[in-house]
Automatic annotation (TrEMBL):
Name of the protein in question: Three-Cys-motif partner protein
Top-rank taxon: Bacteria
InterPro entries linked to this entry: Tcm_partner
Organism, scientific name: Mucilaginibacter pocheonensis
Length: 282
């Protein structure tokens, strides 16, 4: 059944991003299948409707949620947990799952991903046999750092899309005159005080002129890449390892997103980097 509700396709990197997650999930399940005591949980914090609209000339394609549900070899996940805040998308995905994957334990919950990330952390702490693979593909800067912090020390591999160019960079105004609401958003997203954020991305230069010393504000030239590096560094305060980033660019070659995986498992890190590496050509 094709869903009546579709999400918007974002270009070649959207397909590449889904391929990365699905390929990783298959390898992840192959490893977990050898550990008979382990139970597996797949968590999708922004699950969508189940389908993604490609363009006017092509039919909608399956989203990540449905592609993950299709995996049966070497084994399916024991539990799937889909979070979708939009009511229509939630109901659409729920209907597709009910019709096409009725035997799978795959609830779709209409809720804020931040809340459910904290609930998942609690679940993993209370259910030791479970290991989780999480995919966080947010709408803008909607994932708060506080939510990520709850995952510290847990058996979870976290793939997260970071809106470096289309999110954080747009809030970091060239003249450093950033509105209060934007500063608060940056603090919530990065988990840093505003003074630390501004110091990281701006420098002040004092020039001696005929009329005395004048100070100019300089925004870092390679700021988008620097945002990606900072987020990776922040993840390393929660997880032992963070993968290389799959850098997503638009048609003008401007960086839009950094896609990375955080884990406490060294084998998982190597696997993620092996999967990401061929995608650098996108």
């Amino acid at each position: 059944m094709k869903s009546n509700i579709v999400n918007q396709f974002g270009g070649n990197w959207t397909e590449a991003k889904m391929e990365i997650v699905v390929k990783y999930a298959k390898a992840y399940l192959t490893i977990m299948n050898k550990q008979t005591w382990v139970k597996t949980l797949y968590f999708d914090g922004f699950a969508g409707s189940g389908h993604i609209e490609a363009d006017e000339e092509k039919d909608a394609i399956k989203g990540t949620a449905l592609r993950i549900l299709e995996i049966d070899d070497p084994k399916p996940f024991d539990i799937y947990y889909f979070v979708e805040k939009n009511k229509k998308n939630k109901e659409s995905l729920e209907a597709v799952i009910k019709e096409n994957y009725p035997s799978k334990r795959a609830p779709v919950i209409q809720e804020d991903c931040n809340i459910k990330l904290m609930h998942m952390a609690k679940f993993l702490k209370e259910n030791k046999p479970f290991r989780a693979l999480a995919f966080i593909d947010p709408y803008g800067m909607s994932v708060n750092w506080e939510s990520i912090e709850h995952l510290k020390g847990l058996g979870i591999d976290l793939w997260i899309l970071v809106p470096t160019g289309v999110g954080v960079n747009r809030l970091l105004k060239n003249d450093k005159n950033i509105p209060e609401a934007w500063l608060k958003k940056l603090e919530m997203f990065l988990g840093l005080e505003r003074n630390e954020i501004l110091k990281h991305f701006y420098s002040d230069k004092t020039i001696n002129t005929l009329f005395g010393d004048e100070t100019s504000v300089n925004k870092d030239v390679e700021i988008i890449q620097k945002i990606g590096n900072l987020y990776s560094q922040r993840l390393k305060t929660i997880f032992e390892f963070v993968s290389d980033s799959f850098v997503m660019r638009n048609s003008t070659n401007s960086i839009m997103y950094h896609f990375m995986m955080a884990t406490n498992n060294k084998t998982a890190l190597a696997l993620a980097n092996d999967i990401i590496k061929p995608k650098y050509r996108i």
